[in-house]
Structures are given as structure tokens and as C-alpha cells.
Design a protein that fits this description.
The protein is of the alpha+beta class. It has helices at 86-96, 167-175, 197-203, 244-249, 253-266, 271-286, and strands at residues 13-18, 30-35, 42-46, 55-61, 73-82, 118-119, 125-129, 138-145, 148-156, 211-222, 225-243, 300-303, 312-314. The protein has two domains: 13-96, OB fold (Dihydrolipoamide Acetyltransferase, E2P), CATH 2.40.50; 118-314, no CATH class. 29% of the residues are buried.
Length: 315
Amino acid sequence: MQHPLPPQPPGLDRVAILKFDDRNRYGTDGVPATLLYGGGTKYIVTCKTQTKLNQWAKVKLRENNDEVKGARYADLIEILGPVGDHPTELLAFQLHFRVKPCRYPSKPWALSEPSDRVDCRHLHCVSIDNASTRDVDDALSLHEEHGKTVLGIHIADVACRIPASSPLDAWALARAASAYNSGVDAEGGSSVPMLPPQLAHDELSLNQDVDRHAVTLWLTIENDSVVSARHERTLINNKNKTTYDAMRGATDGPLLQLRTLLEKLSQEEDPEDLVAWAMIRYNAHLGVPRCCGAFTPSTRVVSRRGGRGWSLFRF
């Protein structure tokens, strides 16, 4: 079955492949080009660059085409790099889907300072991610309560810091999620967070040894099964920003305890699947707006993970 092509973005700016290896040049400065997800429609792009390599480029479509020749034209804005180069192709797709350019709202951001928190900074919270992760949005903890084991799943409470209807809130609503990309080792990484990096990677991230706001799901465990679940707004301190590989190789301490318990609960073995199980339980619990406990109909809910990345939920 043939899948439909993604829609073209708004406006006249497009991403295209300039076919420099096509000897059928159009005039002295025209190069045939095909648009990304353009359905094979060819354009003629004004370009004097001499190269034998096909190039990704930003182009601007002309509103008036040559109806007599049956030709469609576009003007070159910028050559991005050669076809087949991974960083270039990643940038091409980011531009096409409007992930970039990303012009965040300017300071001041006027973040809120909530005080209605349950102080859980005494717990040994651990975040488990890839080594390159910079926006740490979840952590786990274990403790005993009334003779039973309690698993804490802590998600960064980003929404409590961002005033409703503020420019930053409006930006987050329009942006909707972070864009994660791999395979490019660049300054600041190739991923594009939903919120400004100064916030996503620092003040709103569950970084190690700093106090952070969270919304926590407590799972009470008995006989290797979840017997109850509840959630509340908390203040936590991430004691160990670590990795999946470290959890895989743990031979003692909190990481081994977490891995052992999650293996029993999830029937999985790989650390990424173990953490994913915890996130799925969290999302299942908070997936439907609730009006109970610490939450009310006017509450601004935690920034919850949708797959990977931030998504602000308010109700």
C-alpha cells in the first residue's frame, strides 16, 4: 500500500534536491530540482554553482510559472550541503517540517515559584537516560512505607513554572513537543527542545543535585505486583543522573534494586524497556484529566511525555 505524502509546509519556502548530475540544464544558470515530498514535480532553480554533486537546498517557489513552456521555477535561497551527508539531510528535514529555525520567546520569561509541594528531597531519586540526554524529564525512586515497597515515578512539573497564557505558554502550545534527533555530534546537539534550551536543559530539567518540582506517581508494590497508585505534586532532588548502560551493569545499590524490581513488574530485561514500562504506567494513570487529590479543574498539569519529549497539558 502506498502511503500518502506529508503535506507541504505553508508559504513558498521549500527544501529541494538540486540535480547537478543531470546534464539536461535549463539555460545557463538553471538547475533541475525536485522538492522534498513534492510528488516528483520538477522545478528549475536559478543557480550558477558549478559542482557534480547533487545538493540539498532551500528554495523559494515563484508564484508565476511559465505556462507556455510548462515549466515551474524557484529561486535559490541557500545550498545546505551534499545529498548523502547525514547532518545536511537532518537539517533538510528539520527545515521542511519547520522544526528549524526555532526562534524562542525572548526573556524575561517570568517563571512562577509554586509552594504547594510535598518535600521528597530525602529520597534517592535516579534519572536513567542516554549519555547524551540534556533535558532530564523523569526520575525513579524506591522506599519502604508501612512495610511495603513504593516505587516513585517523578516527572518534571514544567507547567507549574510557566504562567498560563504567557508568551512562553503560547509558544509551547504551538510548538507542542521537542524534536529528538541522533547521529549528529554538534554544539548543543542536533535536537530541538520545545522550550528554550536555558530552561529545558537547566532550570526545568531534573539535573543532578538540584531541587526540582515534579508530579510523582507512587506505585505501592506487594508480592511483585502493583496494588495501589496515587499521585501528588512533589519537590525532589535527583541524586544520580545516570545511564541505561550503568543500570545494565549495576551489581549493587539503588540501580540494581530498581532494575530487579522493574524486571519483575514489567517482565522485561533491557533497561530502556524497564524505564519505558514506568513511563507507560505514569501516562496511563495521568492520561485522563482528574479532579481529585491535589488536582482541580483549574490546575495546570505536569509537562507529560508523549513518546519522547515535553508536552504541556493543562485543564
